[in-house]
Write a structure and sequence with these properties.
By secondary structure, chain A is mainly alpha-helical. Helix content of chain A is 63%, strand content 5%. The longest helix of chain A is centred in the middle third of the chain and has 31 residues. Chain A is elongated. Chain A starts with a helix and ends with a helix.
């Protein structure tokens, strides 16, 4: 039973569900539903899919997450960055004739779901660590810019899309120009939404409305924009005047079913599915963790993989596209008082009602309204000052971040995030290949040994002591070889080299081989190789290898013991002197 | 001038060149030349190229390395593993009709040379650290097995080649069967070479020959095998009896010139060129370093990149294929007394003479003789006991090694080495995401703080101290978030968390962001976040960021100070007690 509760968190919170919790969850669900309707439609447009796919992405996936997820407040559904990644993954597959867009999107969601579930079962969540913070933050900023630029075309009636900044710019500079009626609606909605986002709630509170009411009204602004522009569109027959409309949306619920996929399609979508899984997981966990901490709850990253995986499998089986936990929506859910994942399930019911009864209205909705919704939502993702902060902290991290941003803008989302990951791993290796180390000497009158280039210390020409401040592994094994080779080559009278290992937590097989090589080479050069201050667990493992048998020198418990025993201590304690 | 000497090491050793050095270099060159003639022909066959390409690979590339290389004894030229990688890179390009084999091999050498020079100029030698020892060792073992299996077909007269073990096995099990005359020669040469390698030298010495003479004769065994089998082939007209012969080899020197290449060819060869560069560099530097240490010399890894790069550029411009420093040949060169890179230049002259005057003889040489030469040479590369050694040391390293071997045998050299590199980087991330850390408490009566699960220590429910034993970076930043989240969630009365950082040498932007997130989340949960024992340089950088401004707690010089100042020390010193 405990095992089952672990896999199905709903058994845990469900057994203690009461009326008060129900009320809180329901209120939160109403607010989130109001927010989610326009977003669902907008992100479907961003993903270059029919609008109902967005609504479907907000029904079954939310139910699935409510069953398996650990976060009590994470609001799962379509989000901007993942929708852009979906569009960018689907486009080449469609133009290669491998599948239609909807099939490709469903297969992408299924694959992403399967990968997430697999990672969860195999406890491979650590793979997400590949995405360093500068890379993910640069990626999201660049995606936000790319999305906003791409939607400008829809906003102004020039046609939208484009998966790289040059593509978007070249489309925007095409000669057909701005469509005045569309641009009027688009810019009007944009200004209204911006006002609603930043000014409406304080204004309503000043006008005497209660906090909750003010919140609901402010959150409802995008829905109001939809109704108002639908009304305008119908009154003035804007469709006939050349304003691009959403068009017929079938009323009804998604019919569960699997898309038809062949191996070619699966192979073509695999890299994108992997990137979508990782990006979605990293974003989602970060949001969930931040919100959980506020109530001293915790989320299980491996269980989160299962929750998100189930949500995406549900998306792939119900005519939708990849989903993940959205930041803004989750914060709204939290602020509105959601207490359990049931709030997500209630939201799903709300969206299902919308899909049943609202759909017929949407045909007359101008696309520009959705474009404005998207632009307002994604501009909050853009964090250019982060570039300055990261620059001040570390040039390496800045390089990874800038590369991610430039590659994403110039060559699209997959190139951008791949470049960022590769560059950050390269930089890790670069750092690892320049580990902290110091030649040390004795601080006079003490048993302490310090860096000779920073302290006044005693050294001897016959013994050289090198301290390494990091675990030894293949990233820095060659550095150690080079360093000791250089020290040995520059010190003609040298008889002993002592490697001081107080910070070495681990030695991998490459480093062990390097130590053995160093030992052999020093032996050839008539120099004995010693170790000192080796940590207990490392020493235990060395004893089980044949390294110690071949070692020309000894292993000393302390550096001071090494210097005294090698007969070279500038200032040995009374006991050591006696022994000497 | 000093700068110039740095780039052209020949100016350094050349200025002190004398008659005794000349004598020593010349003797070594004679021995290496005798060894290199059959190897050049054999490795050309292994690379699926005409035999003269092997001779050309041993002329200009050696001259170029003598100018730019830092190792005094490294013998550059065609080697088994790189020849196999060449064959495997060239085959798909040829079958796709992008170029003929010789053009593709020359372009590959040029690209590899250019990459090596670029890495040398940009000091990117650290990229070679990607290749952990288990991966390179597994790769060489698997390549040796693959080469030996592939040559069995030539040895037995069944036709050879095949870039994966399944391909080789299926070829060997084809019904046409063994060709008796070919197999007779092949097996005969194999037994003779094995005998010469392991028994001949001691036998000759026992028979009264001098050491040098015995060495030269033993080393000449492959050349003798060539002459004897050529004589047999001519006497019995073996070619007419179905024994595969080398065929016409044009007499003469390579004519320098660039191959014709288009972008499609360059793109197709780029990954292989990169892998060949890295594998060649890693092998070469390891050999050079081992030999240099014996004379307390040192080699410069970045200059070595230039030397090998120049050698490969020369190969690409003189009708040859990628080269690198060979292990066996370099050891022979060293043992024979080579003192400067001039020995390599003299070897080049020796091979040039062979290309001029020996070539006409080679037409009648049975391919089986070369196959036997290759098999004897590569079986010494196979080190299966290394699997057991690595298994005993570390399961992770064993996994990387086994994956490399299996992927190389099953899917070829490029898949093998890529799988090894990817897996070892994954395992680094896995290790990083499980860093050494411990919740610590006070050892009674002391100012020391130790792991609570290993020592009898004093703790308090209001303060929790966590020590991390590694630098904080994106690989372990999320671990830290999860760990602290878990600790906070399980400790209801907690008011303070102290992160003890005595081993933190570095904090990257991801980890800084994680620390800030941890701080914010703990603040939301009513817990203050403190640091203790932060190293000087790390503290300096933290002061320049805005992290400390937002920190809810304090930074303490020592863990003991932290516990006393937080009013929770089980046993504080007299001063701290007064302050409390």
């Amino acid at each position: 039973m405990k095992q089952l509760r672990h896999w199905l968190p709903i058994l845990d919170w469900g057994s203690r569900y009461d009326r008060a919790t129900f009320g809180a969850d329901l209120l939160a669900a109403v607010i989130v539903t109001i927010m989610l309707i326009p977003q669902s439609l907008a992100y479907a447009m961003l993903a270059a899919l029919p609008p109902e796919a967005g609504l479907y992405a907000s029904i079954l996936p939310l139910m699935a997450y409510a069953l398996f997820g650990t976060s009590r407040v994470l609001a799962v559904g379509p989000v901007a960055v993942v929708s852009l990644m979906t569009a960018s993954a689907v486009a080449p597959v469609v133009s290669a004739g491998l599948a239609d867009a909807m099939t490709a999107a469903m297969v992408l969601a299924l694959m992403s779901g399967a990968m997430l579930v697999l990672m969860g079962l195999l406890r491979l969540g650590f793979v997400a660590n590949f995405l360093s913070h500068p890379v993910i933050s640069g990626f999201i900023t660049a995606s936000g810019l790319l999305i906003a630029a791409g939607q400008l075309g829809y906003l102004l009636g020039m046609g939208g899309g484009g998966s790289t900044l040059p593509a978007v710019v070249s489309r925007l500079s095409e000669p057909q120009g701005v469509h005045p009626a569309t641009a009027g609606i688009g810019v009007g909605v944009l200004v209204f939404l911006w006002f609603a986002r930043s000014r409406l709630k304080p204004l309503l509170i000043r006008l005497g409305l209660g906090m909750t009411m003010a919140t609901v009204i402010a959150r409802a602004a995008p829905v109001m924009a939809i109704f108002v522009t639908i009304a305008l569109s119908k009154s003035f027959d804007l469709g006939a005047k050349g304003v691009a409309l959403v068009g017929q949306v079938p009323a009804g619920l998604p019919v569960p079913g699997l898309p038809a996929a062949d191996m070619a399609l699966i192979f073509a979508l695999a890299p994108a599915a992997f990137l979508i899984s990782i990006v979605g997981f990293v974003e989602s966990v970060s949001v969930a963790r931040t919100l959980a901490a506020k109530r001293r709850e915790r989320i299980g990253p491996d269980q989160e993989l299962l929750g998100l995986g189930a949500a995406n499998l549900a998306a792939g089986m119900s005519g939708a596209f990849p989903v993940t936990g959205g930041f803004a929506r989750s914060v709204v859910n939290f602020d509105a008082g959601a207490r359990t994942p049931a709030a997500g399930a209630f939201t799903a019911i709300g969206i299902a009602l919308a899909a049943l009864y609202l759909a017929p209205l949407l045909a007359a909705l101008p696309q520009a309204t959705l474009a404005a919704t998207i632009i307002v939502a994604v501009l909050s993702l853009v964090d250019l000052p982060a570039l300055a902060r990261v620059w001040a902290w570390s040039r390496h991290d800045f390089a990874a971040m800038l590369a991610t941003i430039l590659m994403t803008l110039g060559f699209g989302v997959e190139a951008g995030i791949s470049a960022g990951v590769v560059l950050s791993i390269l930089l890790v290796l670069w750092r690892a290949s320049h580990p902290h180390s110091a030649v040390v000497g004795q601080v006079p009158g003490t048993e302490h040994y310090r860096n000779i280039s920073r302290h006044q210390v005693i050294t001897t020409p016959r013994v050289l002591s090198l301290r390494v401040d990091e675990s030894l592994w293949f990233g820095n094994a060659r550095f150690l070889e080079e360093k000791i080779e250089a020290l040995a080559a520059c010190s003609p009278g040298l008889k002993h080299i002592v490697l001081m290992c107080p910070a070495v937590n681990d030695i991998d097989a490459s480093a062990l081989e390097s130590l053995a090589d160093i030992n052999r080479r020093l032996m050839d050069a008539g120099i004995r190789f010693h170790l000192s201050e080796v940590k207990g667990p490392v020493m235990d493992r060395l004893r089980r290898s044949d390294f110690l048998a071949g070692l020309s020198g000894e292993v000393f418990l302390s550096q001071h013991e090494a210097m005294c025993r090698l007969g070279e201590g500038g200032d040995c304690g009374p006991e050591a002197r006696k022994a000497g």
